[in-house]
Design goal:
single chain; 606 residues; alpha+beta; 5-stranded antiparallel sheet; 18% strand; cell inner membrane; rotamase; PPIase_dom_sf; isomerase; Periplasmic chaperone PpiD
Length: 606
């Protein structure tokens, strides 16, 4: 690939193009190249000429992932959902702006100051909280205002459409009556155990089903990949870390841990001058060095009589408690160590650390070993990554690259674009690269893919096969199972219809009926919701009689006898809720219809 670029760059045409590129970049910046050679390469989608950028999609993905509500394994699906949502939002925004919907700056300001998340404890808007919350969500104040303005326009559009719909009084009354209605019914479940004999199917039936459902038996376009992976953690696993390095890392990690301290304080200013205070402090230090206990020395020398009576104990402190000078001394000491003389304001201090609130060394040994080893391989990892970038770009295969990096050349099984799994090949961006034009069609190595801060990957297509319909022999078991299930269901439905006919003629059937009494539409019933829904679609029975119907279930058929329908008692709260839900569903249907219409007329390029 690199050689072809070099060869092409020798022509006069290439030199003229390069000259134009250099001039454009010098005068107008690198963005000018997009005007010379087409769209911005970071543009993923164009909606009626308006771009949706890759950065915009990734920003929304990261915001959603940062919320913690989306598992990492769903990131790829999340990215696809966000792409489609951005297309919909763009279409609605364009439609709203074409319709003249407008939001003033004052309206945006009022909305922002009214958002509870931006208010302090007294309910007042706080600029500091505003900036902090936006920063945490990945917004600048300007980008948030712009997005809020566009969002309000879309809301105006959607609310206008929703409020254009209305419900007549008699419709609301009828809905309430249907909602409070109660039905009592019996049902019998029929499944494959109720069938007599085995289901026999012919070769012609198999072939007919196979041909009628050909799309179910297609093998998607697939590739087999070769790949080279650099993993910083794997490199770190092979590093030997000595005990001294672990101890140093333990001390460094817990350098800011809360600690219990004692002190000897000698003041100056009123009763003694600074020199006298220093001489007294040095005497106290000499006493400590001679072996006198810190408690006894504090009692003899410290002007802080309250703490001196407790052996100089100040209790447990956090960094910042007594100021930078005190912290610098106290947090540089290990447990049991004593400082030299520390001057703060009009006092001299001698500080001793008597305890540190930190995890035991053994409790952190494994994570310390990992951190130290990761740091030790950091340079080697960066060197390997740079070598991978340089060599994979120019190489005609990955075997030589893997050998030069002393890494294994790994191979995948057959993969399709939408496969999911747990290996590195299913992480975001990898299969997109594998099926890109450069890698799939041109046969180049992929760009170096940054999976995370510790892993880099390059893939190459080793083999490729187009989408094709699988031969019947390859999927015979699957086709046969589907045909058998279909025939069983057909026989069960015929058997249930025969039972209905007999019941309607006044006969009885030798079955154990299950009962469901006084059931409302939304009640939690022992019967399947499919059976309840079917029961509420059945015509009313005559007094003293029953109506009969069948209901198809995923793995069988139900025979239903509807015995009684009663109006039921009014439930104002439930009926109000159902009316609101019905209104919302109608509004959603209107908006969805608009979106479908806009999408059908839009020019969307991906």
């Amino acid at each position: 690939m690199l050689q072809s670029i070099r060869n092409g760059s020798r022509s006069w045409g290439a030199k003229i193009i390069i000259g134009v590129m250099v001039a454009a970049m010098a005068l107008f910046g690198v963005e000018s190249l997009f005007g010379l050679f087409g769209d911005d390469p970071n543009q993923e989608i164009s909606v009626n000429g308006e771009p949706i950028m890759r950065q915009q999609i990734e920003l929304e993905v990261q915001r959603a992932m940062r919320s913690g509500q989306v598992p990492p394994e769903q990131e790829r699906q999340l990215r696809n959902d966000i792409r489609e949502e951005l297309v919909t939002q763009t279409l609605l925004t364009q439609y709203a702006e074409e319709g003249g919907l407008y939001v003033s700056e004052d309206q945006v300001d009022q909305l922002i100051v009214g958002i509870p998340e931006f208010q302090d404890e007294d309910g007042r808007f706080s600029p500091d909280i505003f900036r902090s919350r936006l920063s945490g969500a990945g917004y600048t104040p300007l980008s948030f205002r712009e997005e809020l303005e566009v969002d309000v326009k879309r809301q105006q559009l959607q609310q206008g459409l929703a409020f254009s719909d209305f419900t007549l009084d008699n419709e609301r009354q009828r809905l309430a009556e249907l909602q409070r209605q109660q039905r009592s019914f019996r049902y019998v479940m029929l499944d494959e155990d109720d069938l007599e004999g085995d289901v026999q199917i012919s070769e012609d039936e198999l072939e007919s089903y196979y041909e009628a459902n050909a799309d179910r038996f297609e093998r998607p376009e697939q590739v087999r990949l070769e790949y080279v992976l650099i993993d910083r953690r794997e490199m770190a696993d092979s590093v030997d870390v000595d005990e001294e390095a672990l101890r140093e890392a333990w001390l460094e990690r817990n350098a800011n841990a809360d600690r219990r301290v004692s002190h000897i304080m000698i003041t100056f200013g009123d009763e003694r001058d600074r020199e006298d205070a220093r001489q007294r402090a040095e005497e106290a230090l000499q006493a400590l060095e001679a072996g006198e206990s810190f408690a006894d020395t504090a009692l003899r020398y410290s002007d802080d009589t309250a703490s001196a009576e407790e052996g100089g104990d100040l209790g447990t402190i956090s960094r910042g408690f007594f100021g930078d000078t005190f912290d610098e001394a106290a947090f540089s000491l290990d447990e049991g160590e004593t400082s030299s003389i520390v001057e703060m304001g009009n006092a001299l201090h001698i500080i001793q650390v008597t305890g540190i609130d930190r995890p035991a060394f053994e409790d952190q040994r494994d994570s310390l070993r990992e951190d130290v080893a990761m740091n030790e391989v950091n340079d080697a990892f960066n060197d390997k990554v740079q070598q991978l970038i340089d060599e994979s770009f120019a190489a005609d295969d990955l075997q030589g690259v893997a050998e030069d990096l002393s890494l294994p050349l790994q191979e995948s099984d057959w993969l399709s674009r939408n496969d999911q799994g747990s290996s590195v090949l299913f992480e975001p961006g990898v299969l997109e690269q594998a099926f890109s034009n450069d890698v799939l069609e041109e046969g180049y190595n992929s760009e170096v893919i940054e999976l995370d801060e510790d892993r880099r990957l390059v893939v190459r297509v080793a083999d490729h096969r187009e989408q094709t319909q699988l031969p019947l022999d390859d999927v015979r078991d699957e086709v046969e199972a589907a045909v058998v299930a279909q025939r069983q269901q057909e026989r069960l439905q015929a058997q249930a219809r025969d039972m209905v006919a007999r019941l309607q003629e006044g006969e009885s059937i030798d079955r154990q009926w299950l009962e469901a009494n006084n059931v409302r539409r939304q009640d939690e019933a022992t019967a399947s919701q499919l059976i309840v829904q079917a029961a509420f679609r059945m015509p009313h029975p005559e007094d003293g009689g029953s109506t009969y119907q069948t209901a198809v279930l995923p793995t069988g058929v139900a025979l239903i006898a509807l015995d009684k329908v009663v109006p039921g008692d009014a439930d104002e709260e439930r009926e109000q809720f159902v009316a609101q839900m019905a209104q919302q569903l109608r509004a959603q249907a209107i908006i969805q219809g608009l979106v479908q219409d806009l999408r059908s007329d839009a020019e969307i390029e991906r």
